[in-house]
Amino acid sequence: MVLKTFGWAFGFTVLGLALAVLYDGWTALGVVAILTVLEVSLSFDNAVINAGILKKMSAFWQKIFLTIGVLIAVFGMRLAFPVIIVAVTAKLSPVKAVQLAVDDKDRYQQLVTDAHPSIAAFGGMFLLMIFLSFIFEDRETKWLGWIERPLAKLGQVEMLSVCISLIVLLIASMTVATHAHQHGGGHADKAQTVLTSGLAGVVTYLIVGGLSSFFENRLAAEADAQADAEVIPPGEPRETKTGAASGPSGKGGPSLVAVTGKAAFFMFLYLEVIDASFSFDGVIGAFAITNDIVLMALGLGIGAMYVRSLTVYLVRQGTLDDYVYLEHGAHYAIGALALILLITIQYQISEIITGLIGVVLIGLSFWSSVLRNRRIAAGRPRASDLA
Predict the structure, then answer these.
(1) What separation, in Å, do the N-terminal and C-terminal C-alpha atoms of the chain show?
(2) Buried (b) or exposed (e) across 243-264, using 16+ Cβ within 10 A?
(3) Which one, of 50, 203, 49, lies nearest residue 125 by Cα?
(4) Are 376 and 385 in contact (CB under 8 A)?
(5) Per mean pLDDT, which range of 187-196, 208-217, 236-245 is the poorest?
(6) Which residue, among 285, 280, 294, has the nearest Cα to 105 in the 3D structure?
(7) I need a surface site. Which of 97, 129, 156, 273 has the fewest CB within 10 A?
(8) Which of 243, 255, 263, 264 lies closest to 68, judged by CA?
(9) Which residues of 90-111 are buried (b: 16+ CB within 10 A; e: fewer)?
């Protein structure tokens, strides 16, 4: 099972490391290996979030995510994205941007660094919307009930997550403006860039996430209506129009409704935007290790392959069903990453801290899930365990 799921990642690792050695010797191999570890450590929570969405999709769209989606993740975000950012911000053609990345690596790194405020504002606000939408939703399963219960009640206020996000964005842009004013206004336009990019992140979430939820809910309603019209013998699993059983999914089994069509398409777009938002900190952080675009693409690309394989593994093993608090931990990690991205607009934060926060939160949620399962198995569940 492990070899089947991670086979492409293993193969891509061997190929990528071999290309690194051919490109610049054994030193390049070490750099690529470090970048791979960096990408995986920063994106483990991404795999958990992706798995929670991917398990709802049909087998066809899961394959699309693993084929076309991988191409977008590896070559689009880890190779083309930095070049596009440089081309747009420096008003260069894509060809000249590539030439700059190859011939003048220091200048290329500086241009990407200069674009960091807009990147961080967009990604930070998009991820913050994901976190707030999760935490304000009233869920049956609660990890930190003392926090999540009152927040779920607050979530009944319409558009609360949007309001809080906009307040956070205003604070971030005002902080940038104040700092620019105190230092002679050399970068006064950065506040406007942060505000515009942050608004774009919020709008992107509302459009893509909203359309995905709309079509998913409509598909579920149609499936329920069709099932109610059928005469189903007692004890028989109810089949939806997509062929997925409507009962609780077993380990690695189908979700309530295997999402297809427009709903799956917008879910796919949503997944790609999430992946893009998660990749921002990895791309920026990679410059602390190397400014060679080839080594960066190889290292981050290998890491992206492992994240995708881990996503599939979590879905097929039914891990999120067995360890019910993992999604909570991943979303808390998303909230932390969103705030860190916004802070890095003005202040530098080590990628080690970013990666450790995510790993610790997911590790704690995993251990809490293990303890919950042990209590239930021993016949001593708490009320919160059965919620």
Answers:
(1) 32
(2) ebbbeebeeeebbbbbbbeebb
(3) 203
(4) yes
(5) 236-245
(6) 294
(7) 156
(8) 264
(9) bebeeeebbebbeeeeeebbeb
